[in-house]
Amino acid sequence: MRIDVLGVGFDNVTMEEAVARGVELLHSDGAHYVVTPNPEIVEVCREDPAAAEAVNGADLVLPDGVGVVKGARMLGTPLKEKVPGIEFAAHFMERMAEEGKSLYLLGAKPDVAAQAAENLRRQYAGLRIAGVHDGYFHEDAPVVEEIAQSGADVVFVCLGAPKQEKWMRKNGAATGARVLCGLGGSLDVFAGVVERAPKFWSDHGLEWFYRLCKEPRRIGRMMKLPLFLVHVKQERRKK
Ligand code: UDP
After folding, report:
1. Domain 3-238: CATH architecture, name and number where available
2. What is the SS3 string spanning 174-189?
């Protein structure tokens, strides 16, 4: 059973359990997709029913950050731990490398996706990169066809939320891949273009503040964070 946080149902899993579940999906027939919502995306889902449908329709819904974990605790239905998408991806790639599976990278700016592929190939010996495509295309069909032709087992879909969730819901099956993961700005991190917050900040639940200092243009999006807390408090009162 999923744990509901303001209309988004989260799987109550540890990182280890999430990765095990991802591997299980990799070995199951058909296409599956994984999403990693943070409070900002939960707020987007409240306003956009198609986004909510795409997020809740995923086979695995992981709490990307401490905000969702705090929200769940405040609502009296705690989640085991945060499972950041980018860390899930790292563990998942280790398992894929062990099994010689292939990965397609979709998203980010053209040079970024290619650089991410080069870095990942070096970092995860055994991981096969089936192909890359930047995230600035206008028609889905040629991209879907390219992924299908590549024979990729897994696709990292990094188009930003909720675009990537809607994209996976609509196109996942046609790619022929077993697992698609929506991972936001992860390719920028894998390419070394954007740094993740140092451990101190994320350990103290302040990754958002670090990112805000580095990228002040995110302020508009980040205003959704206090709104999320207000909505959680309202929901708690109702309960
Ligand atoms: N992006 C893309 N196509 C688009 C819009 C965005 O490929 O049409 C990429 C963008 O280049 C970035 C990622 O999607 O690499 C979104 O990053 P952001 O930091 O906004 O995502 P978050 O990790 O916060 O969800």
Report:
1. 3-Layer(aba) Sandwich (3.40)
2. HHCCCEEEECCCHHHH
- Our CA dihedral for 195, 196, 198, 204, rounded to 10 degrees, sits at 150
- Which sequence spans correspond to the domains of the chain? 3-238
Mean pLDDT of all residues in 154-176: 98
Neighbour count for residue 78 (Cβ, 10 Å):
13
Residue 17 tokens, joined: 């359990």
Closest ligand 1 atom to residue 164 Cα is 14
Residues 7/46, Cβ–Cβ less than 8 Å: yes
| Alpha helices in 79-223, H assignment, sequence order | 85-99, 110-123, 140-150, 163-175, 186-190, 199-203, 207-214, 219-222
Pick the closest to residue 146 from 178, 106, 91, 181 (CA basis): 106
Distance 112 CA to ligand 1 centre (A): 11
Two structure tokens written together for 163: 């675009």
Does any ligand 1 atom lie closer than 6 A to the CB of residue 161? Answer: yes
With bands split at pLDDT 50, 70 and 90, how would you rate the model's confidence at 216? Answer: confident
Report pTM.
Answer: 0.95
Task: State CA 196 to chain mean position distance.
Answer: 15
- For residues 17, 97, 25, 67, the Cα torsion angle rounded to the nearest 10 degrees is 40
Q: Ligand 1, atom 5: nearest CA belongs to which residue?
A: 159
The confidence band for 207, taking pLDDT boundaries of 50, 70 and 90, is confident
- The confidence band for 218, taking pLDDT boundaries of 50, 70 and 90, is confident
